[in-house]
Amino acid sequence: MKGVWVMTLLLHCALSDKIEVLGPNSPVVATSGSYVVLPCSVRHLDQSSLSAVDLAIKWTRPDLGDDLVHFYENRKEMNTRQILQYRGRTALFTEELQNGNVSLRLSNVDLPDEGDYKCRVDSAIWADDVSFHLRVNVRVGERPVISVSYDSNSEQFSLLCESKGWWPQPDLQWLNCKGENQPAGDPEIQRHSELFTVKRRFTVHKNHIDTFYCRATLGEHKEEEEIRAGVFIDLLPMSTGAKAGIGFAVILGIVVIVLILAGIARYIYKERQRRIEEEERGLLLLSSMAPLFLAVSLIWFITPEFQTFIVPQIVTLIILVIVLVIQAVIVFYKYKERKRRIEKEEKGFLFLLFVVPLCVLVSLSLFITPEFQTFIVPQIVTLIILVIILVIILVIQAAIALYIRKERKERQEKEELNGGKVEFLLSYCLHFFNQRV
């Protein structure tokens, strides 16, 4: 019985000397820029309270090779081997050590603080530890925006990259097409409504242009924008010889276009005149031959015997007059319709003749922008080009207008002559019929 009592006493002493370290069962979440408490406590295995004042407390980062975060021993903090990024940012709750609270307070939390943490407590006989994960909340900003400018004196391009809306501050880098980091100026940091805006400038000589990337990174998050080599080429100014050559090419091209339009207009007008003349010949033939054929047929058909036994002479005359009147009405209607169509075509042609050059001139005015004038053609050359184009267009329009007026006058004279022929034929037929009857 005495032996059982001794064994029970020894077991109680062993359990009371063994310690247990407790920590969170889920990741601890922190907000960047604030502080966070990494919870950890120690107690006896029988769940009785334990003072940690005389224990050794060691906080490390297992994901960084167990680098030291904070160390406490012999009733004082010993952080000579502490990781540089944690200097001055860690502290224990010393007043809570007697209650077994060995939690660590981490201030100014930043994204690199995210990772695994281990809390280890050692006594003279026993040791235990617990590990958990710390997650830092961030806000991913906008995609970077790149602006470019060119300095003709230094022959260098200046590239400015800007990204807004980050928390915490991101890392902004310039890279080439091979992913190599490029030397750039110091980042410019601005803070608006607790969010960061980062800018960084990068310069490159015109002989070393390439496709470049601006990348904003924050932990595992990144936003990237590229600028291709073609953008730099478009901004390069041209030499004086190139400007003069392009200006001459522009003038020559405009003159060629105007001449082609004038040739097309002349061809269309000539083709229309030819069609009008054919219609006039057909109308004249219809107006002159049809009554003649009708009159001859009636003359040969209405013999004295037919007039005596079939139809009286007065009825024959009435029928002949009705037929001639109908024919005259048809001829007059066709003449009026053709004249109306010709006038309509002339108006449309003249409208086209003036509107097309005007559209060309307006298009050129819109095309020759201030940027075009600066990099391609000086402003005085631009003014000379527009004046030359305007004079050419006005001369061509005046020549075509005179030609149209001349053709119209000749056509009116021809129509008057044809109308006289028709009247002569009609009067001759009536006179012949009256004599016959």
How would you characterize the overall build of this protein?
The chain has 437 residues and is α+β, with helices and mostly antiparallel strands. Helix content is 48%, strand content 25%. It is built from 7 helices and 18 strands. The chain has helices at residues 2-17, 229-235, 240-301, 304-309, 313-367, 370-375, 379-436, and strands at 19-22, 28-31, 36-38, 41-44, 56-61, 67-73, 76-77, 90-92, 104-106, 115-122, 127-137, 145-151, 156-166, 171-175, 188-192, 195-205, 212-218, 221-227. The chain has a 6-stranded mixed beta sheet with strand order 2-11-10-5-6-7, with no helix packed on it. The protein has a 4-stranded antiparallel beta sheet with strand order 12-13-16-15, with no helix packed on it. Strand 15 (188-192) and strand 16 form a beta hairpin. Helix 3 (240-301) packs antiparallel against helix 5 (313-367), helix 3 (240-301) runs parallel beside helix 7 and helix 5 (313-367) packs antiparallel against helix 7. It is elongated.
What is the strand and helix layout of this fold?
Elements: H1 2-17, E1 19-22, E2 28-31, E3 36-38, E4 41-44, E5 56-61, E6 67-73, E7 76-77, E8 90-92, E9 104-106, E10 115-122, E11 127-137, E12 145-151, E13 156-166, E14 171-175, E15 188-192, E16 195-205, E17 212-218, E18 221-227, H2 229-235, H3 240-301, H4 304-309, H5 313-367, H6 370-375, H7 379-436
Parallel strand pairs: 2-11
Antiparallel strand pairs: 1-4, 3-9, 5-6, 5-10, 6-7, 8-9, 10-11, 12-13, 13-16, 14-17, 15-16, 17-18
Helix pairs in contact: 3-5, 3-7, 5-7
Query: How many strands appear in the DSSP assignment?
Result: 18
How would you sum up the global shape? elongated
Radius of gyration: 52 Å
Report the order of strands and helices. HEEEEEEEEEEEEEEEEEEHHHHHH
Average predicted local confidence, pLDDT? 76
The major beta sheet can be summarized as:
6 strands, mixed
**Helix count?**
7
